[in-house]
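Ops channel
N.P.: pipeline sanity check, posting one input/output pair.
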């Protein structure tokens, strides 16, 4: 399973897919490529070390049935949450989305 490193995405994935994540062979990979394209505060996310510390707290009231250590943050590099200086194709502007949506036939 793969999700964004945003807290709400991790929490939702853990709650929604807990039955699958209880299986020993099912892995959970967190990838920055699944992040939001916006720079709003709620879409920026946390550094890897901060996120690692937040996982147990974020999921403490949930009876998941698997160890949160299963959540692999290996792809979450320092600076993943900065949109400055990143290739534009990773973070398209809203105007690009609008432009592309106009090309889709009704």
């Amino acid at each position: 399973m793969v999700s964004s490193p945003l807290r709400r995405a991790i929490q939702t994935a853990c709650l929604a897919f807990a039955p699958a994540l209880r299986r020993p062979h099912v892995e959970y990979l967190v990838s920055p490529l699944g992040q939001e394209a916006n720079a709003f505060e709620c879409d920026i996310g946390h550094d890897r070390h901060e996120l690692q510390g937040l996982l147990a707290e974020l999921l403490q009231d949930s009876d998941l049935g698997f160890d949160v250590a299963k959540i692999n943050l290996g792809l979450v590099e320092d600076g993943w949450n900065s949109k400055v200086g990143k290739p534009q194709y990773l973070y398209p502007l809203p105007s690009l989305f609008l432009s592309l949506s106009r090309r889709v036939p009704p």
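N.P.: looks fine end to end. The mean pLDDT is 78.
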